[in-house]
Amino acid sequence: MLRVAIIGGGPSGLFVFKRLVESGRTDISVVIFERGGHLGQGMPYGSEGAGREHVTNVSGSELPELVVPLADWVRDLPQEKLDEHGIRRESFTEEKVLPRLLFGEYLEVQFGALRTRAAAQGLETTVHYQSLVTDLKDVPEQGQVEVVVEGATPRFFERVVICTGHHWPRKHEGKVPGYFDSPYPPSKLAAPCDHPVAVRGSSLTAVDAMRTLARHNGRFQSTGGARLQFEKTSPNFCIVMHTRNGLLPCVRFHLEDPQVTQVELLTAADIESIRERNDGFVPLDLIFQEYFKKLLAERDPKLHERIRNLSLEEFVAAAMGPRENSDPFEFFEAEYRESLKSLAKRESIPWKETLAILSYALNYPAKYFCAEDMLRLRQELAPLISIVIAFIPQSSSEELLALHAAGCLRLVTVGAESEVKVEGQKIIYRYEKEDHPFETFVDCVGQPHLPLEAFPFKTLIEQKVVRQARLTFRDPKQAHGREDVEQDEDGSYHLIVPGIAINDAFQPLDWQRRAHPRLQIMAVPYIGGHNPDYSGLDFCEEASQRIVDALLK
What we know:
33% helix, 5-stranded parallel beta sheet, FAD/NAD(P)-binding domain, 3 domains
């Protein structure tokens, strides 16, 4: 038996297990270590990451295939469960979003169905709940990895897949009253705040915080039409969103091809051929051409004709211009109305949908970018992608607009030089050379890309099984004057990027760039340097296939 350990039983672990079941192999045994009491949910879809007020930003039509389609599962729920979540059986379709906690129940049921299928076909599976893995140790002489579990005897496996999910390190939370390093779990924000609350960021993470804070400081009421009204119960409550560029994200619209995982990605042979022609690199401009311009030519020929000669930077400037030159809430309301028309007519907004495909496609060749292209991606393309593909659900959009109309939501542009300081027990947001004190601050910039030092399995770092992720400068002159650069003995310069170096099969690379034969890592906070963008369950679907293909070789 090939013994396989999956560290973490959330959505990533679910899809790795799904791939193992689909392989039909019975000469392997699988052990899943889950630190909580539920499978499938992970942080986003359980109580650690969601309350009753939170909804998914993904619908059934966008989900990779699981055992039972989401819409079928919802329509078969007992009436009391549907009533509990305000869902009408007869009107629920695969294009609707769900309350996040209910979606977590769906994923847990799918994990259970996969376990039943595994048992029927003879795939041995064991699940250890409430089992926190505290360390991993490579044992090369035995061809195994030691898994150290808190309060239990260490176990040994021939293959280990790390699926530990999201992680928000605590910096000041718990030490400084009112300071929160993330809005999760949302229960910590479930209290009246009779004062302005500083929120850093305007992403889906910030929307999560907004939905929780609003419900504990007021109430939303329907006006009988499409609009909501917000009436506050804490007289001095308001949310002050702070963003670098003063922009709000896009609103969900109808997707013509909702499953981006159907896009044909570059094969290993394609990448090798491209690298041979480009000094070992995959050019960002080539990915932009293949996965944005060419696809846009098919979906919206008129728009493509307008942008086909634009560089990546010129296109970003053209796309951002209307936003940057408009009042953010007026622009957001216009997009909200546009999204309603898109859904009603079942017509996509082609350039936005194509940009989502580009975000998905550039993930895998990104580790072959030169350092200059990674910096372009960060500085130019990534800000546009983060805004456009957030896809805020309509219900969240309506609440955001209602809060703003009630004078309870403001947006402040702070620029790139802003900082949040703690002076004693005081929280100070400094921007434009001025200090702005707050009693409550919530950091909502989303999942950060964490450095190698934050990787929880320290023995693997000590054993040099994992190493710092880096990208090489094509032109060494571009590295001069930067602090995030390393120089090798051969004179080459490398940009230090967050987390662990990995290959296409998500195997960590050592200092000789050798892929580890027993370990694979799918924990997104620790691979952000070589895997800069991840699109939720789309990422799980693609990454799990690459992982299991390599694992079973």
